[in-house]
Write a structure and sequence with these properties.
Helices cover 53% and strands 18% of the residues. A 5-stranded antiparallel beta sheet has the order 3-2-1-4-5. Helix 1 runs antiparallel to helix 2, helix 2 crosses helix 5 and helix 6 runs antiparallel to helix 7. The radius of gyration is 21 Å and the shape is elongated.
Length: 232
């Protein structure tokens, strides 16, 4: 395995290698995804560090290096961060269109296979990470479309005065989708069903998380506000 390589330098090499084989448009997607992956690693990668590595990172960060994570650590740290990147960062921190959301999974999958080929990570690690990236390429755009459809449902909800709703009939929380039927969605804890377009129920998956504000009025649940949809 190569020594003294950092995430920063290895990602630069990966992009140079890809540049020769990609169209300008596709390469721009690669650049965008890798740039966002760096931001995610530098912003959140430290939470998974050992105590010793965390002290190294903290010292460099507090000395003024805001990109300390990618400057200090090697590419073997990348696969373990992909769930955070695809399942949280791309959903919560990035205003991305469908093309970039799909590219996030595709590009990270290509990156992982390249890291395996270059002997930076073991095949077993690569296989798990590639599966996560493949899920991201499929689920991120679908979750984004579902969020838009649920937002439209909430925008058309009736006016509800929270003071007129019993505590048991009011929900304001991040909930997991628990059950789906054509045109209907339930959340954990028996919250639902909610009437939604069939396009929405077709996209939804059990286990996905959604921040919702909802009320039950005359035994019927209404979505009042919807936040981001997080694919599991």
């Amino acid at each position: 395995m190569p020594e003294q390589e950092t995430i920063d330098t290895v990602l630069d090499v990966f992009l140079r290698v890809q540049r020769s084989r990609l169209s300008d448009r596709t390469y721009r997607n690669y650049e965008d995804v890798i740039r966002l992956l760096r931001h995610s690693l530098d912003g959140y990668g430290y939470v998974s560090l050992s105590d010793t590595d965390a002290r190294r990172w903290k010292a460099a960060f507090e000395a003024g290096d805001e990109e300390a994570f990618c400057h200090l650590f090697g590419p073997e740290k990348i696969p373990g961060h992909l769930s955070e990147f695809l399942g949280y960062f791309m959903v919560r921190k990035v205003m991305a269109g469908q093309e970039l959301l799909k590219a996030a999974g595709t590009v990270t999958g290509k990156l992982v296979r390249w890291l395996e080929k270059e002997a930076y990570i073991e095949p077993e690690v690569a296989s798990i990470a590639v599966e996560r990236a493949r899920d991201g390429a499929r689920d991120l755009p679908a979750a984004d479309r579902l969020g838009s459809l649920l937002h439209d449902v909430a925008a058309n909800a009736p006016d509800v005065d929270v003071d007129d709703v019993d505590d048991d009939d009011w929900v304001e929380d991040q909930l997991m989708i628990s059950e789906i039927e054509p045109g209907r969605i339930w959340f954990e804890g028996g919250v639902g069903p909610f009437e939604v377009p069939k396009k929405a129920s077709d996209l939804a998956q059990p286990g996905w998380m959604v921040f919702v504000v909802a009320a039950r009025v005359k035994r019927r649940w209404h979505l009042l506000e919807v936040g981001s949809v997080y694919p599991s």
